[in-house]
Amino acid sequence: MVESLGSIGSLVSSPWIYALVATSVLLDIFLPVLPSGVLVIAAATAAAAGSGAAAAAGTGAAAAAGTGAAAAGRVPQDVPDILVLILCAATASVVGDLAVYRLAWRGGPRLDRAIARSRRLTTAQERLGGALARGGGALVVLARFAPAGRSVVSLVAGTAHRRIREFLPWSALAGLAWALYSVALGYFGSQWLGATWLATGVSLAALFGAGAVAAYLMRRQPRATEAS
Fold first, then answer.
1. What 3-state DSSP class applies to 128?
2. Do 1 and 142 meet the contact criterion of CB atoms below 8 Å apart?
3. What predicted TM-score, i.e. pTM, was given to this entire model?
4. Please, what's the largest Cα pairwise distance for the chain?
5. Where are the alpha helices (DSSP H) in 28-118?
6. What does the pLDDT look like over 99-135, one tens digit per residue?
7. pLDDT digit string (tens) for 34-54?
8. Minimal CB count within 10 Å: which of 18, 32, 146, 223?
9. Which of 37, 169, 21 is nearest to 101 (CA)?
10. Distance CA 68, CA 52 (A)
């Protein structure tokens, strides 16, 4: 099973996977085409596969030698640590949000005019401003799952000069929710379907499906607002 991930095995089993995941998540707010979600899911899948293989090896060693302690000690070195992976992804997500937020805050009249020419950004600015003012920053969390939604929300929050205390807690919650969801998809997908490309494919489909649902809900929100 573990061999089916051979093409990325050497990468996800090294400490560099944390730096790669963090860099990808940090930069995909500027370049949404970066496969940050794919990397997080692949690393979590490898973690589940490696943990299972180590557990099996530990059981065999215990049966043969009466102890599995040595095998158990190798797990953190062979596979990514799930908690560290979640922390890296969530922290990088928040740092990326804040970078765009600060850049947009200092953007000046040129950026204001660019947003005014975009109907999508203008609408997002109105909706986000009202949502944050009412303490309803769930829109920020929802946008984290939508394609390019994170970029739009951070840009609009900065351009509208929303206070950092209105934006940062929701950005942190959004980053943590996305990281937990992505890691859970890879980890439990591997547990249930095995460390195969099928498990990775199903996990990615679930991630993209959540993005499609988030985008749909964001498009419907103005209607709900008007109706209320």
1. helix
2. no
3. 0.76
4. 73
5. 36-65, 69-72, 75-78, 82-105, 108-117
6. 999 988 887 666 666 666 766 666 666 666 666 655 5
7. 778 888 988 888 877 765 554
8. 223
9. 169
10. 14
